[in-house]
Amino acid sequence: MTTQFPVTTSLNKIYARNPCSNGWKKGLQAADKTEADDELITYEQNLNEVGLENALWCCRAEPQHANLWRLHAVWCARQVQHLMTERSIAALDVAERHAKG
Q1: Interval 11-52: pLDDT, tens
Q2: In angstroms, what CA-CA distances link 9 with 28, 45, 58, 87?
Q3: Contact predicate 14/61, CB 8 Å
Q4: What is the DSSP string of 9-50?
Q5: Is 5's pLDDT higher than 70?
Q6: What's the CA gap between 13 and 15, in Å, rounded?
Q7: What proportion of the chain, given as a percentage, has pLDDT over 70?
Q8: Greatest CA separation found in the chain?
Q9: Taking a C-beta distance cutoff of 8 angstroms, is the pair 40, 10 a contact?
Q10: How confident is residue 2, by pLDDT bands cut at 50, 70 and 90?
Q11: Read out DSSP for 40-99?
Q12: So what's the pLDDT on residue 84?
């Protein structure tokens, strides 16, 4: 998997995925805009501007990076792996292998 960093998106791409009205208003306000456009924003900017929940939702605006999002989810889960059962850890292993192809 080849990924250009930083990963970017645009308000038009986010809007095309039908965001919730509250999250959308928050994103427009944070970007100091009244409507969507094609100006690129990084996911780091998005996270800082709209918060974790909305930024994670916006990942669906760039489906070509789905494996990157999956790998990040696995990484997050591995931070608490010591609290998991063997079956849950095995599921993480499968999810990671799936994300890596």
Answers
A1: 999 999 999 999 999 999 999 999 999 999 999 999 999 999
A2: 14, 10, 9, 36
A3: yes
A4: EEHHHHHTT---HHHHHHHHHHTT-SS----EEEHHHHHHHH
A5: yes
A6: 5
A7: 96
A8: 49
A9: yes
A10: low
A11: EEEHHHHHHHH-HHHHHHGGGG-GGGHHHHHHHHHHHHHTTGGGS-HHHHHHHHHHHHHH
A12: 97
Spatial CA neighbour of 6 closest among 34, 36, 53, 47: 47
Whole-number Å distance between alpha carbons of 69 and 83: 22
DSSP 100: T
Q: Where are the domains of the chain?
A: 1-61, 64-101
